[in-house]
Amino acid sequence: MEKEPKSIKLLSVSDSESEEFKEFWKIYVEAFPIDQRRPEAAQKECLSKEGFSLQLVMSKGEVAGCLSYWDLGDFIYIEHLAIEADRRGEGLGSEILGDFLGAQSKTVVLESDPPDQSDPVSLQRLAFYERLGFVQNPQQYQQSPFAEGQPAVKAVLLSYPQPISDTQEFTHVAEAITTTAHAY
Predict the structure, then answer these.
(1) What is the CATH number of the domain that holds 138?
(2) What are the two backbone dihedrals, phi and then psi, of residue 5, each rounded to the nearest 5 degrees?
(3) The predicted structure's pLDDT at residue 138
(4) Distance (Å, rounded) from C-alpha 40 to C-alpha 32?
(5) I want to staple 144 with a disulfide (CB 3.0 to 4.6 A). Which of 168, 176, 179, 182 is the partner?
(6) Would you give the DSSP letter of residue 37?
(7) Does 2 fall in a domain?
(8) Quick check: is 66 in a domain?
(9) How many other C-beta atoms can be found within 10 angstroms of the C-beta atom of residue 112?
(10) Residue of 147, 151, 141 whose CA lies nearest to 175
(11) Res 127: pLDDT
(12) 155 inside domain
């Protein structure tokens, strides 16, 4: 039996004036509340920063989502993953993250909303990441602001393939995210 061809491809975005960046921005603004995204000028600035990568998720020749991440030396920080609203439920998020994680030799971390029984979306999101092998870290964590004047957001820091149990290592990861990825 032949293996089915991949239904997705990643397209790197490096030009802040390109049509690809405009496609990304549309998805980004729709998918993330203002306290979980940076202003457009700051996002454009990230494109020139060492370690930052912005990708469009392409499926069937069309833009279906976006993925942004930082290589922070000893770990990878997935900053944003979003699938177009009308494409959710097709397995694209699972496929993109599964492929991404399979290609990494470093620990991968990402932030998620804390689980809240009154917010089914937070529970679904957390379950999605856990199905892919991410684990919750027990330490308290707040997502630092993406822009001046925004508040820190309570979050859960998830890691793959195992938890970050050492307090010093967890502090290092949290500080690297704050001082590098969230510094723009």
Answers:
(1) 3.40.630.30
(2) -70, 150
(3) 92
(4) 13
(5) 182
(6) S
(7) no
(8) yes
(9) 18
(10) 141
(11) 95
(12) yes
pLDDT at residue number 6: 66
Question: Comparing C-alpha atoms, which of 142, 172, 175, 173 is closest to residue 159?
Answer: 173
Q: Which pLDDT does position 103 carry in this prediction?
A: 96
Quote the pLDDT of residue 150. Answer: 87
DSSP alpha helices (H): ranges in the chain? Answer: 19-31, 40-46, 92-102, 120-131, 167-179
Residue ranges making up the domain that contains 27:
8-183
Task: Give the global pTM.
Answer: 0.93
Categorise residue 30: left if φ over 0, alpha if ψ from -120 to 50, beta otherwise.
Answer: alpha
pLDDT for residue 147: 84
CA angle 111, 114, 116 (to 5 degrees): 150
Counting as low any pLDDT under 70, the low residues of the chain are 1-6, 184
Domain count, the chain: 1
CA distances from 35 to 23, 64, 85, 108, 182 (A): 20, 23, 20, 23, 12
Q: Are the C-beta atoms of residues 108 and 75 closer than 8 Å to each other?
A: yes
Instruction: Please tell me the predicted confidence (pLDDT) of residue 98.
Output: 96
Phi first, then psi: give them for residue 71, nearest 5 degrees.
-90, 105
Find out whether 103 and 61 touch, Cβ atoms under 8 Å. no
What does the pLDDT read at residue 145?
A: 87
Domain assignment present for residue 96? The answer is: yes
